[in-house]
Amino acid sequence: MQQLLQTQGGDGFLLFWAKEFLGALLILAFFWMLAQVAGLFLNKWGKRLTAFTRTGLDDRILNRTIPHVSRLLIMLGAYLAIRSLPLHEKLLMVCSGLLFIILVIILFNLAYHALDELLQWYIAERQEGGDALISRHMLPMAEKIAMLFLLGTALIVILKHFNYDIFSLVTALGIGSLAIGMAAKDTLAHMISGFTLMLDRPFRIGDRIQLVGGQVGDVADIGLRSTKIKTLDNQLLVIPNSDLCNTMLINQAFPDARVKGRIDIGVAYGSDVEQVKGLLVATALEVNGVLADPAPESYFVAFGDSALKMSLFFWVEEYSSLFATTDKINTLILRRFTEGGIEIPFPIRTVIMEKGLD
What are phi and psi of 239, to 5 degrees? Predict the structure, then answer.
């Protein structure tokens, strides 16, 4: 009789576990089928729905997130299937915890790919209008910041699932961050200034700027700690970002690449001022590269000690060609003045000597 009961008890035990495994397999099969249906639906009907919109953002987000949606549903089914089994408490905690971590990672990837497409769309669509909050060269940094934020959120969710004290962790991180911040305050100041430059955008990569010290160059790179400027004599000038944020500079490439040139010249007293002004304007217009609109302008600006001081103003299309254009205008002015008999006087000083008294 005892052997029969043991046999019946063993059969009941096997039947019990067979039912539990069958239930878990049904849950897993259901979510696997749900993942297939979701994938087919999103591939067929989702793409049809996104075709009605003008932007391609939703199409790209859909293409990048469909595989993650299917994996998410399958892993959710596996997590619920494991949770339905009457396993030992520690074994259940390990298995379900591992599946929960995989679930969070899949969800993190899904959110990251969607956010990455959103950032790329924003840069591509809004950058041309010039009103974008972030510029194209900030995209890698924005992606890293988004990844760090998502990683932090995923870590908090995982720790919360395992009943860890999140507030003590945040407190420890806060104290550690304070200590690091005090030890590296100058570096942090440069980094914050780098973010300010990227958001405020007083200049962009490729712009030609003039510093308060007189240095002129093209912006080669805007980093977190420093900005690199390639000077006109092909040297690399590295400036800490905090110094750039606290100084005045001239952006020659903003609002556009046109730049205004100026030439000062003196003519002899007795010269026809109107003739000189007309000749200066006509000479500037002869030079290739000088814009006709806005037209060159010439002014009689002051009476000098030995000359009438004149000024010629002109515009060129690109600031990079200003120096060469100024050279051409100066050369042609000298030729036209010689042909027109207009004198450029030397400085003259008259000394009156009185005979001393005996």
Answer: -120, 130
- Residues 47, 42: Cα–Cα separation, whole Å: 7
Q: Is 278 helix (H, G, I), strand (E, B) or coil?
A: helix
141, 225 Cβ separation under 8 angstroms: no
Q: What is the largest CA-CA distance in the chain?
A: 161
**CB-based contacts of 23: which residues, under 8 Å, 6+ apart?**
84
> What 3-state class would DSSP assign to 105?
helix
| Exposed/middle/buried for residue 20 (C-beta within 10 Å: 0-12, 13-18, 19+) | middle
Task: Look at residue 7 and give its three-state secondary structure.
Answer: helix
- Of 62-71, 106-115, 226-235, which range is least confident? 62-71
- Calculate the alpha carbon distances from 110 to 46, 132, 159 in Å: 16, 25, 20
The rounded distance, in Å, linking the Cα atoms of 278 and 263 is 15
Cα radius of gyration (the chain) = 38
Per-residue confidence (pLDDT) for residue 242, from 0 to 100? 85
pTM, full prediction: 0.52
CA 42/CA 152 separation, integer angstroms: 30
- pLDDT category at 357 given cuts 50, 70, 90 is low
DSSP-assigned letter for residue 208: E
Percent residues over pLDDT 90 in the chain: 22
Question: For position 47, what pLDDT does the model report?
Answer: 67
Question: Is residue 156 exposed (0-12), middle (13-18) or buried (19+ Cβ within 10 Å)?
Answer: middle
> Can you tell me whether residue 335 is helix, strand or coil?
helix
